Each structure stands twice: as structure tokens, then as C-alpha cells.
TrEMBL record, chain A:
It comes from Arthrobacter zhangbolii. This is Alkaline shock response membrane anchor protein AmaP. The lineage of its organism: Bacteria, Bacillati, Actinomycetota, Actinomycetes, Micrococcales. It comes from the Bacteria.
Automatic annotation (TrEMBL), chain B:
This is Alkaline shock response membrane anchor protein AmaP. Keywords: Membrane, Transmembrane, Transmembrane helix. Residues 180-203 are annotated as: Disordered. The chain crosses the membrane at residues 12-38, 58-78. It comes from the Bacteria.
Length: 134, 203
């Protein structure tokens, strides 16, 4: 075995861009955002139902999230349900900060905007205890 | 809680009143002969009335006038139907750089209504929120039955239900209206009593 001396037979150093690319589907971002909202904040979504009919408010369900991507910058729209009573401005600001920080951290996509729509408010009582038991 | 066409009714009645008053004054003046110089009583008022109506465009003008009057009349009748006055979506935060937060006032109203119906003796409630997120107006109609302690219900609405809404919106209410109604129906159905318990779970 001889060490090849010709420089042409060495593996050429390549530009980092040529090593392939990772494509993150929009759906991944949406699921990440809604999972972060469900696990790390007070927010809930709706569960059950068929084709959106008969769905019920559930604090342990994942909120709906949709993402608009422009290059590496995302703007999110989330529809959440919150326990009542809660200071809505504070809670949604906390939710916005949490979603944007965690989605950026987990996916590397810069989150510029998080638009939040509060779709229902419900006393926390039973739902939270059910959530703890899971 | 409903919006009626009161202002439109007043405006149109004033306009119609002035028109009819003018027509009446004119008729009186003609009849008493004050305007005798203008219209001779022995001659027909519209001397060339037949030619005027037989003209080419006369039927179309009459038709058009009829249609316009008909549309105005229809609009006026439809304006009598009471409408619910609704508020626009509450914008809780509006920062285009970071995102906006919106909440439909009906969502907050449903939460308030839900909480009110948990009070003992309350049969039903209807809640409407208007205004803006910074100056909310709350109107409530609460139906109670004979079992209710009315003073107690009012006190609990004032000291529990309304403060919870104020907590949620983080601003004091601009106005608050409460209407109480009585009914013979039994109290609001509940799914049973909730008792919180603590204990150790053994797996």
C-alpha cells in the first residue's frame, strides 16, 4: 500500500455548501410550535370531533399553529384556548416569547412574529387535574 | 342590547311630515284663493295633463319613481328589524414587529356567562361585551329562579364574576349593566359536584 502522491487523487476539500442540505418541512415547524405551546405554557387546543365539527375545548390538546416561511424567517399564527380567569395580555406575551424562543432553539429557524388568537376561555379546574394524571 | 332604527325613523318621519305639511299648506292656500292669481279655480290644475302623461318617457319616469319609492320603503321596513350590536375583535396587543394578539369578545362573554351560570339560583345568562379591549362595556342579563338569593347573586357577580373579567382584560370596565329577570325554571344543570381530593397514588 502506497500513499498516493498525486494531489489529484486526494479527496478535494469542498465548500461547506456542497455537503447537502437539510430541508425542514413547514409542518414540522407547525407541530413544534403547537407542541411547545401545549407542553410549556397554559395554552390548550381542541380535541375530538370530525372535520372540525363537535371538537371540544381541551387544555391538554395541542393548539393549532400555522407557519408562513420566508427563507429562514418564520411568522406563526397560533389559535389557543386559555384557562379563565387569566391576565390575557401577560399570558399571551409569555406564550409568544416561549414559542418564538423554543422554536428558534429547536429548529434554527428565526421566528419573527407570533400572532395569537384566543379561541376559548375555560375554567382550569378539571382539565388541569386530568392533565396531571396522564 | 339590541340596536333599533330609532334615529332613521325620526329622520324619515320629520322629512315626510315637512313634505305633507307643505302639501297641506299649499292645498289650503289654493282652496282659500290666496293663490288664486296663480291657478284659476275653474280651470283644471294640470291643463296639459293628458299630453304630459301620453309622452314618450312618462311611463318610464313613473316606473322609476315607483321603484325608487319601493326600494326606500323596503329599506325602511328592513331597518325595523332589531339587530344585535356587536363589537369588533378585541386587539389585546398590536405590535407588527412581534405579532398581534386578538380575542373575540364573544369568547370572553361566553366565559363570563359560563361562570355566572354556576352561581346558585341562576337559570341562564346572556352576556354581551362591546367597546374595545381598552374600554370594554359589559352588559349582562341574568335570569334567576325563586330559589335564588337575589342580593347574593348580585354580590357574587360584582365581587367574583366581574373582577375575573377585569383580571383577564387587565383594564377596568368602562360601563357595566346588569339586568335581572325571574323565571320559574329550575336552576342551571350542572354535571355534578366537584370535590378536589389529595392522596397518594400507588402503582
Amino acid at each position: 500500500m502506497s500513499i498516493p502522491s498525486a494531489p489529484g487523487r486526494l479527496r478535494p476539500a469542498r465548500d461547506i455548501n456542497d455537503r447537502g442540505e437539510t430541508v425542514l418541512s413547514r409542518r414540522v415547524l407547525e407541530k413544534t410550535a403547537s407542541q411547545v405551546a401545549r407542553d410549556e405554557t397554559f395554552a390548550g387546543g381542541s380535541s375530538g370531533g370530525f372535520l372540525g365539527i363537535g371538537a371540544r375545548a381541551d387544555l391538554s390538546a395541542r393548539p393549532d399553529a400555522s407557519v408562513e416561511l420566508a427563507g429562514n424567517i418564520a411568522s406563526l399564527k397560533v389559535t389557543v384556548g386559555l384557562p379563565y380567569p387569566i391576565a390575557l395580555r401577560q399570558a399571551t406575551e409569555q406564550l409568544r416569547r416561549r414559542i418564538s424562543d423554543r422554536v428558534t432553539e429547536l429548529t434554527g429557524v428565526e421566528v419573527r412574529q407570533v400572532d395569537i388568537t384566543v379561541s376559548w376561555l375555560k375554567p382550569a379546574g378539571t382539565e388541569l387535574s386530568r392533565r396531571r394524571l396522564q | 342590547m339590541k340596536e333599533h332604527a330609532g334615529a332613521a325613523n325620526r329622520t324619515w318621519l320629520i322629512i315626510l311630515g315637512i313634505l305633507f305639511l307643505a302639501a297641506g299648506v299649499l292645498a289650503v292656500l289654493i282652496a282659500t284663493g290666496v293663490l288664486g292669481g296663480l291657478a284659476n279655480a275653474s280651470e283644471p290644475l294640470l291643463a296639459d295633463g293628458a299630453e304630459l302623461l301620453a309622452g314618450e318617457s312618462a311611463p318610464w319616469a313613473v316606473l322609476l319613481a315607483g321603484v325608487v319609492l319601493g326600494i326606500l320603503g323596503l329599506w325602511w321596513i328592513l331597518a325595523q328589524i332589531p339587530r344585535s350590536r356587536t363589537a369588533g375583535t378585541f386587539r389585546l396587543q398590536e405590535d407588527p414587529a412581534r405579532g398581534i394578539t386578538v380575542c373575540d369578545p364573544a369568547v370572553l362573554a361566553a366565559a363570563v356567562s359560563n361562570e355566572t351560570e354556576q352561581l346558585p339560583g341562576v337559570v341562564s345568562s346572556s352576556v354581551r361585551l362591546r367597546g374595545t379591549a381598552d374600554e370594554p362595556d359589559l352588559a349582562m342579563k341574568v335570569t334567576v329562579n325563586s330559589d335564588a338569593d337575589v342580593q347574593g347573586v348580585i354580590a357574587r357577580i360584582q365581587h367574583e364574576v366581574v373582577p375575573h373579567l377585569v383580571t383577564a382584560l387587565e383594564v377596568p370596565l368602562n360601563t357595566f349593566g346588569l339586568e335581572l329577570d325571574a323565571s320559574s325554571k329550575p336552576g342551571a344543570r350542572t354535571d355534578g359536584a366537584r370535590v378536589s381530593s389529595r392522596g397518594t397514588v400507588v402503582y
